[in-house]
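Study the following:
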Amino acid sequence: MHRLLSTLLILLATLPGSGLAAEVGSPTRLSDRWTDGDQYMGIRLLGALVLSGDPDLAELSDLAWDADEGLLYGVTDRGLLLHLRPEFNGSRLTGATLLARFPLRGAGGKRLRKYQRDAEGMVALDSDNGTAGDSRLLIAFEGRNQVDYYSPRGDLLGRFPLPAALRDPALYQRRNKGLEALARHPGLGLLTGPELPLDDGLIPIISEQGLRWYYEPFEPDGALVALEVLGDGALLVLERAFTRPYSPWIITLSRIHPTRANAGTGLKAEVLARFDSTDGWRINNFEGLTRYRGKRFFMVTDNGGYSLLETQLLYFEIP
């Protein structure tokens, strides 16, 4: 009987998406000066984890929260969709469990080929309507610069029609600097844009109707890597700066207010927080962002597949 049970557990663990739940989050401090509960600039820190113990917890590029299912989705550069469940003690993030993983599949039901897998942005749809089982995901792919509908189990549901402005190759500096940031705005629809600025130093943020606004990075090598919608219709912007060996990581969170009335203009950005690795912050490549509840958010790093870099999950609120 014991041998039969062990065999069944092994078989279950090898089925796609059905891996046994595993605790993968260890609390950590990203600074010796600032800790859980502290207000740092315009945000309050509510806990940080190192995600480890599973090779699939690498190269996380974005997050999406599903309130109906109580799941935190993570998507990776390797074309994997992860199901995580965060754990809390009061208002503090204390742990995370990896519940399942699914490879992203194409129209024929087969796993995406390696050159197709570079998933960078993600938005959950119908995920907070009180109905379980109807959630869908919008996933942006860099290189191909397209956005597709997916099920939470990694099944392709269709392609999102992008406006001509986002299909123009001249919008992107090079192939692997395409669409990363993705948000669904209640009044403006889908919003996205290239990772790096154009020749004028500005990064266009473009709506599904083709409206555009311009974001000016705070750092000389700043890149637009994530967007999230705030309750008042503003956008939370995640900017990452790191380009050269031994350069510091600089992560900036700011707020902008795109509207139909100010389309076509440069948007003034209000800095909420700036993390600089030369100022005592033990951070690396923060790339993913999602709103949890109210004014609370998760932010995750893409470790690039390097074992020396941690996969970090930060939980914070905008008080």
Observations:
- The chain is about 5% helix and 45% strand.
- The first helix runs from residue 2 to 14.
- The chain has a mean pLDDT of 93.
